[in-house]
Amino acid sequence: MAAKRWNTCNVLATGAETLRLWQFDAKGNDFKLGKELTLRAGETPPSFIAKSWSDIWSAKLNVACLPTNRVFLRVAQFPNASFAETLAMVDLQMEKLSPMPVGQVVWTIHCLPHPSGEQQTVIVTIAARDVVEEYLGKLEAQGYLADRLEIPALDQLLATDVKNDGAWIYPEALGGHDSALVAWWYGGVLQSLDLLSMSSNKNEITVGLAQQLSQMAWSGEVSGWLTSRPKWHLVIAPGVTPIWEMALRGALNEPIELLVPLNAASLAAHTAKRAAKHEASATLMPLEVGTRYRQQFYDGLWMRGLGAAFALYLVGVVAYFGWFGVSWFRTSSIESKVLAQSQTYSNAVELRNRYAILKDRQELKFAALDLWKLIAEKSDSWPNGVTLEGYTLNDGQRLTVNGSAPQDAVTTMLDFSDDFRKSKGPDGKPLFTTGGSPFSYRPGIGNSGVTWNFTVELQRTEVQRTEAK
């Protein structure tokens, strides 16, 4: 799996009483340290180790360092092949390589180049399945879901600059003060990895170490790869119990070259880089545990997505009801104003109509007086015997004039009717329209003369007519 796939890489190493956590920027070839934390045992790791939606496009790799004293390291030489083919070849040899029944272990490999080009050196890391599951369970209880399990001692071994044949001893590399990892390099090839134990009896430490190293060397001679007297190298960090140096010098009675190992942060960076580049098909993680973690991750995404959708829905509902409440309040306010103004408007309309009626009545009164004056002025030229019996103004517009006259005055009254229709007001405009009924007459009672009448219509505007009605 290419390193560029990962955005960040977290490495967690467990100790007796503390946890150490490193976070690296995994976007480039050089893993840069971003954060380094030391936690007490049982303390919950920080939130940045948790996976979320962002891991879909910005992947995060969580690496857990399995305690080295819980694993077995084996070295074997295999023909040069692809990783998948090498994995299959190692699988066929697991009965021989594993110190435990194959069904009870989990294992992974790391391949090293061989000087011949036709072979390859394979480091096989083996751990008991129940030990791994127990360790992962403890990490899971603290909220750390590991993607890979790695062995930092392997990275310390690979980081050593090997220039000659000999043995490299790594005290405390396996997680205990009384044990050391011994790597045998001959011909530029890692030939064997052995465990060196220090006796608890101080009087037997030197003898015990000498016997163990002698047996390892004898095994190498039997296998054929130990072809010369080894040169001894002690990779020890400042502060590590100096008894190792004194005991080894006493046991070997030969020169020992002292080397400084990688510090904790650099070692974690090497572990993170190797884990990011390692093939996913080979891992100490039990398959069912990795599958369960991935399922939990996707289920968590779905649940958080549904939760977010439900929260947005609730926000939308609250916003809708808030908007509805504000709109209802505004509508009620406007309706109240309309209701308050409607009465005022109705009163104003009523007052306007009453004013129009009163105004029209007043105008009609003056119009009636003006007509009466006009009739009076026109009637001065009537012959004797002609009388005005009455006049009526109907609908504020229609004026009916009636009276009686001698038989021989009919022509005079007809001329009066025509002249009356042509009357003009003070503004010079006609007072009457062309409508109305013409002059008419009929014999009176007992043939005593005639009764006459005619009708004219006042020249009023349409608005005045409407108001009058």
Give me some keywords for this one.
disordered C terminus; rod-shaped; 26% strand; 41% helix; 469 residues; alpha+beta; five-stranded mixed sheet; 17 strands; 9 helices
Helix content: 40-55%
- Provide the structure class: alpha+beta
**Binned strand content:** 25-35%
The beta-strand count equals: 17
What characterizes the major β-sheet? 5 strands, mixed
What is the N-to-C order of secondary-structure elements (H for helix, E for strand)? EEEEEHEEHEHEEEHEHEHHEEHEEH
The order of strands across the largest sheet is 3-2-1-4-8
| Helix run count | 9
Span of the ends, CA to CA: 99 Å
pLDDT averaged residue by residue = 84
**What is the general shape?**
rod-shaped
Radius of gyration: 59 Å
Low-confidence stretches: 462-469
Explain the overall architecture.
By secondary structure, this protein is of the alpha+beta class. Helices cover 41% and strands 26% of the residues. The strands form four sheets. The chain has a five-stranded mixed beta sheet, with helices on one face. A five-stranded mixed beta sheet has the order 11-10-9-12-13, with helices on one face. A four-stranded antiparallel beta sheet has the order 14-15-17-16, with helices on one face. α3 (152-159) crosses α6 (264-277) and α4 packs across α5. The protein is rod-shaped, with a radius of gyration of 59 Å. The two termini are 99 Å apart.
